[in-house]
Write a structure and sequence with these properties.
The radius of gyration is 52 Å and the shape is elongated. It is an alpha/beta fold. Helix content is 47%, strand content 16%. It contains 29 helices and 24 strands. The chain has a seven-stranded mixed beta sheet with strand order 18-19-17-16-20-23-24. Strands 1-3-4-5-6 form a five-stranded mixed barrel. A five-stranded parallel beta sheet has the order 8-9-12-7-13, with helices on both faces. A hairpin with a 6-residue loop joins strand 10 and strand 11.
């Protein structure tokens, strides 16, 4: 229909224009034209003769002038474009307007409710402003009218036909032009090429300056040329716009088509019973999960309420997604699901022995768990805290415990955790809310009785987000975790069946309330014999498989492993030892591959010359790792000996210390220099406790100088400098008291302390020797440094008796209660107390008490 109407309109225009161009004369205007006009300024764009258009006149001076013009006989006014587009029309003068405008005759005035009027104007003639001085109004001026000639040339006729063709093309691209053409044809007819040019320009969206340039072009040939150029530009823009619209329509049509097809397919599948709504799918999924679980009554009530809420929500709403996620977590929790436990002590002991060498205390504790669980029916309410230096196997012990109990294992690190929501979850009102790690662990394991390991609990932090260590109290307290409340789930969850295992390097940074809820088990580290067995039984076979090697490819001698332990991996754990073994295996693997490639290349080249097929060579020889070949694989040893001196100089005493990395030996050195007054200085990155120990040692020796050095003055006019080597390493602790006193006495008397003697103990101002911790670690360090005699506080006798025999073997231990005994052991040749004597006395006393109880 549109196409037919467009063609009829085009034919009407073409016939009217051609007939007018071929001889139709312009009808003279009967109304006279006034010699002067009141000028109305235009801002946006000019008008052209031969067209009708409305303008709005607001209340003000122009509206008053309009009423006067409407009462006149001619009813004419002038419309002229302002030179600047942003001009204020109420402040304009004739100098601010262009010289050429158009005469407009008022056809109709329509008053508006808010004031002013809408005026329908008919544009008739061009005019040029003649500057005159008129006191009536600054915008009232004389004008000179321009009349287009009626002559028609062949060139003008060609231009007119080109304009007609271009207008016809525009009609096809832009239907809005049809209405403008119909209005124009209803009020005007084409009488000359000038009128056609004006009409063509009025159809375009050219700029105000381009339109004004055409308006003030009086020569018809130039005017129609400029009009045709602007019309062609408009046609190009319309073509481009039409192409863009087609692309957009095609894309939208394709998307709509796919949407409609999907909706139709969905409806068809629903009618056939092949597909269900999203709500039905979600509901059935949740109900299927609930059938497999024994959900507590309070949790079931919440689930039922949420399912009813989900049924009335639209799937597209955001609240539907929140409710669906909440139900997903509630129903995926393993309510009432538990793994059957293994209470067989023999199989559990076998599993622990397969995975770890040594660690007898840990293994014994796990077997006690199993025994209790076998009698009570379940292992619950136990929180183990494995404390020890890095690399001793705390995490792997947790895995072995889970394997021995036949439980699922889940581990996550709390080191660096600062947000308590990581433990107790976020509230559902927050965007991106998630349950805490404990709920995520239960979801991952899909049982309510897994083994959950909390790694690096000593490295938790606090921030404005909360205190995660305090949040752990509810988790690890057996009296509270049976009704643990996660903020996201917002229902009570029973964690009493979970076996929690906590790991830490040190206990100092763990809050006391949290420490109180845990059972502390120490993994002190390994001595040479233990590391040797671990490397032979576990590390070498495990890494052979990882490196793609076979047992016959590489062989480690026992002496080579010992050399690696002493020279390259002297830490408490075995991680560094494993890394050194890996390093050797990698170099051996690279060497084997290079030799194999070289032999294959040589064999191929040889057989090509002899024109024989290539044969695979026999297997390579086994690479034997010996102590003398370690430098080739690992470089020079990083450690020589912990014992710095073969024989202690005067003022030097060997002490035993315990650090987060295990045991260590510390040589306390003392010298004196001349000074005006007696003083003491301590260096070596000593902490506050160790500084206090040095002050106690200084004061005690000063008070007992006559007992230990009766013929000596107490460092008169001397500054005593006490130093602990390896000054870059921070040191602190109360176990260096007797060591410092011994060093000062050696310096004061000039006597050397017995060689290969180590000591540890806290000293009081009265000379009492108090017990210290880390006995096993200190023994390991003493064995590593080659010490033969060790002085311990008498109160540490019980710790000594609990040590394995292979650690105590070859070391003579002396137990002391007062520093007088330390002095005799350190500076006299005979031993005061013997380990075997004290141990035997203690055993005899125990036996005697048992006999008395029986009687």
């Amino acid at each position: 229909m549109d196409h037919i109407e467009g063609n009829s309109l085009e034919e009407e225009i073409e016939n009217a224009v051609i007939s007018s161009l071929e001889g139709q004369q312009e009808k003279p205007n009967k109304s006279p034209l006034p010699e002067s006009l009141f000028i109305f300024p235009l801002i946006k764009r000019p008008f052209f003769p031969g067209m009708a258009a409305p303008i709005v006149v607001e209340p003000g001076p122009f509206y008053d002038a309009l009423k006067l013009i409407a009462k006149s006989e001619e009813k004419c006014l002038g419309l002229v474009l302002a030179k600047k587009e942003q001009a204020d029309i109420y402040k304009l003068t004739l100098n601010d307007l262009h010289n050429v405008g158009v005469l407009a005759r008022i056809l109709r005035i329509i008053p508006m409710e808010q004031g002013g009027a809408q005026v329908i104007l008919n544009m008739e003639k061009r005019f040029t402003i003649i500057p005159t001085v008129d006191g009536a109004s600054p915008l009232h001026t004389r004008v000179e009218y321009h009349h287009d000639p009626a002559t028609l040339t062949i060139e003008l006729k060609a231009y007119a036909i080109s304009i007609i063709s271009t207008i016809k093309e525009l009609l096809k691209l832009n239907p809005l032009f049809k209405e403008e053409l119909q209005i124009f044809l209803g009020h005007s007819d084409f009488t000359d090429p000038g009128r056609l040019a004006d009409f063509a320009v009025a159809l375009t969206t050219a700029t105000r300056d381009e339109l004004q340039d055409v308006l003030q072009t009086f020569d018809i040939l130039n005017r129609i040329d400029k009009a045709l150029i602007l019309l062609k530009k408009e046609l190009d823009v319309s073509i481009l716009q039409n192409n863009i619209n087609k692309k957009i329509d095609a894309s939208i049509s394709k998307t709509q088509k796919e949407f409609f097809l999907r909706e139709q397919l969905k409806t068809i599948r629903k009618e056939l019973g092949l597909e269900k709504e999203d709500k039905s799918i979600d509901k059935e999924k949740f109900e299927a999960r609930l059938k497999e679980r024994k959900v507590p009554a309070d949790v079931q009530k919440v689930i039922t309420e949420e399912l009813e809420k989900l049924a009335v929500l639209e799937p597209q709403s955001s609240e539907y997604a929140v409710t669906r996620n909440y139900l997903d977590w509630l129903t995926i929790m393993p309510w009432g699901i538990s793994d059957p436990e293994t209470h067989n002590l023999n199989s559990a002991e076998q599993v622990l022995s397969e995975d770890h060498y040594g660690l007898e205390e840990i293994k014994q504790r796990v077997l006690e768990f199993l025994a209790v669980g076998k009698l009570s029916g379940s292992i619950r309410g136990n929180i183990l805290c494995l404390v020890g230096p890095p690399g001793v196997g705390k995490t792997s012990v947790g895995k072995s415990i889970a394997r021995a109990l036949n439980r699922k294992f889940f581990r996550f690190s709390v080191g660096g955790m600062r947000d308590e929501a990581e433990i107790k979850g976020h509230r559902r009102t927050y965007i991106g809310a998630m349950p805490g790690k404990l709920v995520q662990a239960l979801k991952s394991c899909q049982v309510m009785n897994p083994v959950i390991m909390l790694d690096e609990v000593d490295k938790m932090g606090t921030s404005y987000h909360g205190d995660p260590a305090s949040a752990l109290l509810e988790v690890l307290d057996p009296e509270q975790n049976s009704s643990f409340l996660d903020h996201y789930l917002d229902v009570r969850c029973n964690l009493s069946e979970v076996l929690f295992i906590v790991t830490a390097n040190v206990l100092d940074t763990i809050p006391e309330p949290l420490k109180d809820r845990m059972e502390i088990l120490r993994l002190s580290g390994y001595i040479m014999q233990e590391k040797l067995e671990i490397a032979t039984r576990y590390l070498i076979p495990k890494n052979l498989k990882l490196m793609g090697l076979k047992p016959e490819d590489i062989e480690f001698s026992q002496e080579a492993i010992k050399s690696i332990i002493n020279g390259y991996a002297r830490e408490a754990g075995v991680r560094s030892l494993e890394n050194q073994i890996k390093k050797i295996m990698r170099k051996v693997a690279m060497k084997m591959v290079k030799e194999k490639e070289k032999s294959v290349a040589d064999e191929t080249e040889k057989n090509q010359k002899l024109k024989k097929p290539t044969k695979v060579r026999k297997k390579q020889k086994t690479v034997v790792i010996k102590p003398e070949s370690l430098k080739e694989y690992l470089g020079k040893p990083m450690f020589t000996s912990d014992h710095i001196y073969e024989r202690n100089p005067v003022g030097v005493c060997t002490g035993l210390a315990w650090t987060s990395l295990g045991g260590a030996t510390l040589c306390v050195e003392s010298i004196k220099v001349n000074a005006e007054k007696t003083s003491m200085k301590l260096t070596g990155q000593a902490g506050n406790v160790m500084k206090e120990s040095s002050e106690i040692a200084w004061s005690y020796l000063n008070s007992a100088i006559q007992k230990y050095a009766p013929k000596q003055q107490f460092f008169e006019k001397s500054q005593v400098h006490i130093h602990i080597p390896e000054g870059a390493t921070p040191k602190d602790g109360p176990s260096a008291g007797i060591t410092m006193v011994s060093s000062l006495i050696s310096l004061l008397t000039g006597k050397q302390i017995r060689n290969k003697l180590g000591m540890t103990g806290e000293l009081t101002l009265t000379g009492r020797v108090l017990p210290v911790g880390g006995i096993k670690e200190k023994f390991v360090a003493a064995r590593r440094a080659g010490l033969k005699d060790i002085i311990l506080p008498k109160d540490n006798l019980r710790d000594y008796e609990e040590l394995p025999e292979y650690i105590k073997k070859g070391v003579q231990v002396y137990f002391v209660e007062h520093y007088d005994e330390v002095f005799k052991l350190a500076f006299e040749k005979k031993a005061l107390l013997n380990t075997s004597v004290l141990t035997q006395k203690r055993k005899d006393a125990k036996a005697q008490r048992k006999i008395q109880k029986k009687n």
